[in-house]
C-alpha cells in the first residue's frame, strides 16, 4: 500500500485536536453540499451524496449540520456556491500529486496552491501531465480484527478487485460504480467498515529512500491539506515502514 495512505492513518491518530476536527468537518460539509447540488438531495437516488453522507457521519459530523448542507446544495437554504477544481504538480524527487479542491473563488485557490507548491520545494504541472498516472477507485477499510483470508474471500464475492494491507486496517479496492454494492455486501456478511470513499490510486509507486526526502514530500502534502479549499491530495509515493515509524516518532 502507498506510503501516503499509511501517513494519513498516522496523522489521523495524532490529529485529534479540535482544530483538525473542525477542518475535517468543514471539508466534509462542502463535499455534501456539492454532491446535493449536482445530483439532488435524495441519498437513495444520489450515489455520490450517499457516499459523502456516510463519510460525514463516520467522522461524527452532526446530522442536523449535514441536513443543512444538503438544503444549501439543493437551494432550500441560501449558501456559498462551491465548484470542484483539480490541480496537478510534483513534489521533491518527481513525486506526482493531484490536489482536489472545492472553491468559491478559482483565482484565489489557484494562486494559493501554486504558492504552496513553490514554498515547499514542489512545482505545479500542466493539466493532464500527472492525471494519466492515476485511476479512480472505490476504497473501503476493514479492521484487522478480521483475518486476511476471510476478508479477501468476502471482498471478492462482493465484486471487489483487491485487498491489501493498510497498516491497522485491510484496504478493499473496487470499481467506483461498485462502491455502494460492495460495502452493502461486506456489511451484510458481518464485517465492520471503518471508512468508504472514492479516491485516485496511482498505477505505479515511486519509492522514497531517505528520511530527508520523505520529510520534504510530506511537508508539501501537509501544507496543501491545511488549505481549507483542499479536499484531497493524491500521490504516487511509497515510504518504507521503517522511515514512517521514524517520522511518527
Describe this structure in words.
The structure is a single chain. The protein is an alpha+beta fold. Helix 2 (18-39) packs antiparallel against helix 3, helix 2 packs parallel to helix 4 (63-74) and helix 6 (148-158) packs across helix 7. Helices cover 47% and strands 24% of the residues. The protein has 9 helices and 10 strands. The chain is globular, with a radius of gyration of 18 Å. Residues 12-16 have low confidence and may be disordered. Strands 3-1-2-9 form a 4-stranded antiparallel β-sheet. A hairpin with a 3-residue loop joins strand 5 (162-165) and strand 6. It has a domain at 3-74: Arc Repressor Mutant, subunit A (Orthogonal Bundle).
CATH superfamily of the domain at 3-74: Integrase, N-terminal zinc-binding domain
Distance between the ends: 21 Å
Structural class: alpha+beta
CATH topology of the domain at 3-74: Arc Repressor Mutant, subunit A
Order of secondary-structure elements: HHHHEEHEEHEEHEEHEEH
User: What's the shape?
Assistant: globular
CATH class of the domain at 3-74: Mainly Alpha
Proportion of strand residues: 15-25%
Gyration radius (Cα, Å) is 18 Å
Strand order of the largest sheet: 3-1-2-9
**How would you characterize the largest beta sheet?**
4 strands, antiparallel
- Helicity range: 40-55%
Low-confidence sequence ranges: 12-16
User: Mind telling me which CATH architecture of the domain at 3-74 this is?
Assistant: Orthogonal Bundle
Count of DSSP strands: 10
Round the mean pLDDT to the nearest integer and report it.
87
Helical element count?
A: 9
